[in-house]
Amino acid sequence: MSEEPTTNTKTTKTTNDPASGDPRPDADVLIAGAGPVGQVLALLLARQGLRVSVVERWARPYPLPRAVTMSHDVQRVLRQLGLGTELDPMLEPWGLDGQRFGFADGSGLIVGESACPASSESGHARMSGFSQPDLETLLERRVRAEPRIAQYRGHTLDALTDDGDRVSARIRPHTGLAPAPDGVPRTLRAAYAVGCDGANSTVRALLGLELTDLGFSRDWLVVDVVPHAPPGWLPYACQLLGPGRPTTLVPAGPGRRRWEFMILPTDDRESVDTDENAWELLAPFGVHPGNAELVRHARYTFRGRWADRWNHGRVVLAGDAAHQMPPFTGQGLNSGIRDAANLAWRLALLVRGEGDERLLADYSAERAGQLARIIEDTVGLGPLICMTDPAECARRDALLGGSAGPVHEVRMNWTLRGGTLKDDGIGGGLGLQARVGAGTRTGPLDEVIAPGTFLLLGRDQDPLDLLSPARRTAWHRLGGRSAHFGPGGLTDPEGAYAAWFGRLPASVVVIRPDFHLFGGARDPHAADDLVHHLTRHVLSERAPHRWR
After folding, report:
1. Are 329 and 412 in contact (CB under 8 A)?
2. Rounded distance, CA 219 to CA 191, Å?
């Protein structure tokens, strides 16, 4: 079935102007793919005042679970969109009292365990369980309510061309499930296009972009379950190691549990992805049809690969179109949302005619570099988790059991490097969100100072007062804001920011719209140089000219 754009108004739909002979743009940005990454990117762009076209093959969001872990910094991005009240009931924070995370050998012996840290730089639980269909329903509702977004569900992307000053996309009604009543193709035009269209990306294929593949490939069966009552007999989360069947158990949002079973060479490939086999695998955990609902089972091949280049002219990749990884560190969807946050402010500057042409290449450098490290670390866990040879497993268990520390624990702190960052030991980290006070109001930084733009934050005084007239003009071109602690500024009721500035060390920092630090300086009078370094790299030297 094909659908017309799902918008509240007709103003986002434009047509070609035959009188002038110049096709008018349908949007500022065209997005292929309406999964969570595409939807979040569309909402971030609309929040910046941009018009967005979203093309999606399927008529409705996919109704079954996939991703089940949400990182703290991704929570912060979603809350920036005003989703907090509706998001909270969907999340099950990890790291609460009594939650332990274990590695058990084939005999069930716990050979290593640790607690997941509850706190984070973003002010939210470091990791939380959630159900992806719930999130997608919320995002879809917000997208449909946003008049700046025109959504073309039930359409596929046939062709995509970079015309130099714009992109053109040919789309047609999708006929995969049923014949479309109008199979006539149509052309959409925009300033930029983003491929958020998944691991088998059409956009990536049309651009001819190559993948770096680490050669990791393992088949697993993913099983999602809703217990009828809290399963107190189960560990909160656990990784069962070989020589038996490697198995992962994790929380998957309030009232939900996920198992991931590695498929062994001895398994019957024809019957592995069936209800009967799923229940058989769950039986040793005391889970059966009498005490749980089987929501889903699906066979996946876990791989580790990423695109060598993420942009080609005015077309960019994001999400699974640019990278895929095993779920061992829970970073797949989280990385895709980070892509969206990193890309949105760049596209907004470019569409407004303020941005330097290097911004998209810098996006590619930042994201590809970070994802390469994340995927390498994640794939590096593969031999530990997927090992089934008895002798090798015995040596591994002895190492884990005799270690003075949790050798299996992965440090999930992959800072950004290169790109639009200052190489000063500060740039690339996350900006802190803690409680601040402003007048009679106290709350998290993002609730007191609305996020979404560049922030110049001073430890003791307003750094804006220390900028030269030229730097102040450039800062306002960027749409930047400033804030500070001390007289006439914010209060630091918990002392969190005083300690944070001390650790950096810095007295002034620039925080980007994606919450990453551009850089900082110890001397507050160096704020002028800091802003000059940023604006010289980000702003175009040409006079601003908004694309239309």
Report:
1. yes
2. 40
**How does pLDDT run along the chain (548 residues), one tens digit per residue?**
334 444 433 333 333 433 334 567 899 999 999 999 999 999 999 999 999 999 999 999 999 889 999 999 999 999 999 999 999 999 999 876 555 555 565 555 555 555 566 689 999 999 999 999 999 999 999 999 999 999 999 999 999 999 999 999 999 998 655 435 567 899 999 999 999 999 999 999 999 999 999 999 999 999 999 999 998 888 788 888 888 899 999 999 999 999 999 999 999 999 999 999 999 999 999 999 999 999 999 999 999 999 999 999 999 999 999 999 999 989 999 999 999 999 999 999 999 999 999 999 999 999 999 999 999 999 998 988 899 999 998 888 787 765 444 444 445 568 999 999 999 999 999 999 999 999 999 999 999 998 899 999 999 999 999 999 999 999 999 999 999 999 999 999 999 999 999 999 999 999 999 999 999 999 999 999 999 999 999 999 875 666 55
The count of C-alpha atoms lying within 13 angstroms of the C-alpha of 164, restricted to the half-sphere facing its C-beta, is 0
CA atoms within 13 A on the CB side of 206: 24
* Structural tokens at position 86: 């509706």
Phi/psi at 176 (nearest 5 deg)?
-70, -30
pTM score, two decimals? 0.92
Q: How far apart, in whole angstroms, are the C-alpha atoms of residue 119 and residue 493?
A: 17
